[in-house]
């Protein structure tokens, strides 16, 4: 029992599965370094474990014998991030410690350097986008729909004039490039995670990949998220938090603007933000002209290599060809008319039922579960064939067709090949650096994948291609059997709303996000947990499943879902709860 006047600190540990806080006595020697957010070591059930201080000078529960705090490791997240972690733990049904870990330095920071708060020089002329930010709402995010080839550095530099700016980008490579540009403009830039201590001390700009949404930034005056549509901003493993959502909440709590830059706002962003759209001419300049090759009208013997593609390979200096060969989608096409077999309800590619199943019809939509007879919807033929899109010989064949050396690039490629023609998975779009033309050899695999966000991801690929070729100056070729698809039409017209209009209708009719909020629940004890959710009074959530060992839990909105997930005690055992996962 603590002596009267003894200092007591409350601690949450990094032990998996333990969300509870414990109180510890603070020895006099440690008192100066014990502050909210500090990283500490404590004894818990006979083990020495790591944790964070969540309160100092608290009143411990009566009659409990307290242990002494063992050690202070050093500086940790700012107090406001300790609060934000509690919110995120509720929002994504995760552990507070998981978020505090993300918000902490990669190694202990016992002392801080001096603050370095210089902003980069502002751009010579403020852009219309930067001017629009003056009217940004402070209660939700402000989306700037800027075309893919437009350099966003001036908008970032302009925002940094307000005071310490936090910038979140999709990758560490992008963070390094932007940090370099801002640094050359005279800004004091701290890059996360390496410069965590400088960021905690104070910096003009704090910048990093997804985890930087949790980076320290004392005096935070604005938050920017670059390419807010990028899948890499959402964490795949549970808790499945999204950097744009965290950034928006962080800014809202502080009463500062959260500016999200993207050429193609997702429906999720549109639902939660105010969207600003530039003049048509600005968007048109920043998207590449799109050339569409309708593969239904081409000689099937040409396979992946249309006449237009061959002309491109022979005519342009630096060409990047994209072919996702992971085989995650196998397309069925009509042998008579080349029309693809698609779901009439949701548009995804239909798949053949595995042999041995006893379905009402042989074709199934993997996205919405609709069964179909094996008949071409266009010409009535009953002969369908699989399109073999996993072409391992693409590189050799392209070499023969172009008469030039062709290099191969995948996510695993370390050194970029020196060839002026490259072929690879979508990783090549992020690795190639620059190109005069991009060709998607088989785009339908992306467009019709049985995922909720397939069409949005396909548009994001077209945006990445537009950026690689420098917008209007370059060319993008798309080989497809679905030329009228809204994702292709959106890129063609340099207007993301061409996709988002029909896509929102579709999601509403299927009850999918953002019209609803969903969680995927799996693991050995999922059945018991889902049973508890189904039994909640008032029925705040609908439970669907199981599909294998996975259940889908649906609510009208994120808050209702989070409240329901928190209301049911978790059974002991392994349980995975993925709230609004990026891959659905
Ligand atoms: Zn369907
Ligand atoms: Zn047909």
Structure, briefly:
By secondary structure, the chain is of the alpha/beta class. Strands 9-10-8-11-12-7-13 form a 7-stranded parallel sheet, with helices on both faces. The mean pLDDT is 92.
Molecular structure report:
With 584 residues, the chain is an alpha/beta fold. It is 27% helix and 22% strand. The chain has a 7-stranded parallel β-sheet with strand order 9-10-8-11-12-7-13, with helices on both faces. A 6-stranded mixed β-sheet has the order 5-2-1-4-3-6. Helix 14 (454-468) runs parallel beside helix 15. The two termini are 51 Å apart. Residues 334, 336-337, 339, 376, 378-379, 381 line the site of one zinc ion (ZN).
The SS-based structural class is alpha/beta
Oligomer: single chain
Q: Can you count the beta strands? A: 28
Order of strands, main sheet, comes to 9-10-8-11-12-7-13
* Separation, N- and C-terminal Cα atoms: 51 Å
Which small compounds were modeled alongside the protein? zinc ion
Which radius of gyration do the C-alpha atoms yield?
A: 26 Å
Largest sheet: 7 strands, parallel
Beta fraction: 15-25%
Low-confidence stretches: none
Number of helices: 18
| Global morphology | globular
């Amino acid at each position: 029992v603590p002596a009267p006047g003894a200092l007591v600190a409350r601690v949450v540990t990094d032990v998996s599965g333990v969300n509870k806080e414990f109180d510890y006595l603070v020895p006099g020697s440690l008192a100066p370094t014990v502050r909210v957010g500090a990283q500490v070591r404590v004894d818990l059930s006979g083990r020495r474990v790591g944790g964070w201080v969540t309160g100092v000078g608290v009143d411990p529960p009566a009659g409990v014998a307290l242990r002494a705090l063992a050690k202070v490791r050093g500086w940790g997240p700012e107090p406001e991030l300790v609060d934000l972690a509690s919110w995120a733990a509720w929002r994504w049904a995760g552990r507070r410690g998981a978020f505090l870990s993300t918000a902490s330095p990669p190694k202990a920071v016992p002392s801080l350097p001096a603050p370095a708060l210089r902003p980069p020089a502002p751009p010579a002329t403020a852009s219309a986008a930067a001017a629009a930010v003056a009217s940004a709402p402070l209660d939700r995010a402000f989306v700037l729909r800027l075309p893919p080839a437009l350099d966003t550095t001036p908008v970032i530099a302009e925002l940094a004039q307000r005071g310490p700016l936090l910038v979140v980008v999709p990758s560490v490579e992008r963070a390094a490039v932007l940090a370099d540009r801002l640094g050359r403009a005279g800004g004091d830039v701290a890059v996360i995670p390496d410069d965590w201590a400088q960021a905690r001390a104070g910096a003009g700009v704090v910048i990093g990949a997804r985890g930087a949404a949790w980076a320290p930034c004392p005096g935070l005056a604005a938050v920017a998220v670059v390419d807010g549509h990028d899948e890499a901003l959402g964490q795949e493993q549970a808790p499945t938090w999204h950097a744009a959502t965290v950034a928006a909440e962080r800014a809202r709590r502080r009463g500062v603007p959260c500016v999200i830059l993207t050429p193609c706002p997702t429906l999720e962003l549109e639902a939660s933000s105010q969207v600003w759209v530039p003049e048509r001419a600005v968007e048109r300049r920043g998207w590449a002209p799109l050339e569409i090759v309708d593969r239904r009208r081409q000689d099937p013997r040409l396979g992946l290599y249309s006449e237009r593609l061959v002309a491109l390979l022979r005519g342009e200096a630096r060409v990047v060809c994209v072919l996702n060969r992971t085989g995650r989608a196998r397309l069925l096409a009509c042998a008579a008319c080349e029309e693809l077999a698609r779901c009439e309800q949701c548009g995804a590619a239909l798949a053949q039922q595995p042999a041995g199943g006893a379905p009402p019809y042989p074709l199934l939509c993997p996205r919405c579960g609709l069964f179909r007879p094996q008949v071409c919807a266009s010409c009535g033929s009953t002969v369908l064939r699989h399109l073999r899109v996993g072409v391992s010989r693409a590189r050799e064949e392209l070499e023969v067709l172009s008469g030039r050396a062709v290099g191969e690039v995948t996510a695993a490629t370390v050194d970029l090949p020196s060839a002026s023609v490259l072929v690879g998975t979508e990783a090549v779009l992020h690795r190639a650096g620059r190109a005069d033309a991009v060709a998607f050899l088989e785009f339908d695999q992306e467009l019709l994948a049985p995922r909720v966000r397939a069409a949005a991801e396909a548009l994001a690929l077209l945006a990445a291609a537009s950026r690689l070729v420098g917008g209007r100056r370059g060319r993008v070729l798309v080989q497809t059997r679905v030329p009228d698809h809204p994702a292709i039409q959106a890129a063609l017209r340099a207007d993301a709303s061409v996709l988002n209009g029909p896509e929102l209708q579709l999601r509403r009719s299927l009850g999918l996000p953002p019209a609803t909020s969903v969680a995927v629940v799996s693991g050995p004890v999922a059945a018991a947990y889902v049973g508890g959710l189904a039994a909640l009074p008032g029925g705040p959530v609908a439970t669907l499943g199981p599909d294998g060992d996975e259940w889908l839990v649906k609510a009208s909105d994120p808050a209702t879902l989070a409240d329901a997930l928190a209301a049911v005690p978790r059974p002991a055992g392994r349980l995975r709860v993925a709230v609004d996962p990026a891959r659905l």
